[in-house]
Amino acid sequence: MPALRRIVRPVALAASVLVGAPHALAVPVAPGAGPVALPGATLAGDPSLAGSILADVSTTWVSPIDPKYGFPGAQGEIESRVVRETGSGTLDFYWRISVDGVSYPNDAPLAFAVSGLSLSSFAGGAAFDADWRSDGLGNVAPTDASATAHAVTWDFAPNAFGPATSSFFVFLHSSATSFDSAATLSFGATTASTFAPAAVPEPANVALMAAGLALLAWRRRRAG
Question: What pTM, to 2 d.p., does this model score?
Answer without folding.
Answer: 0.81
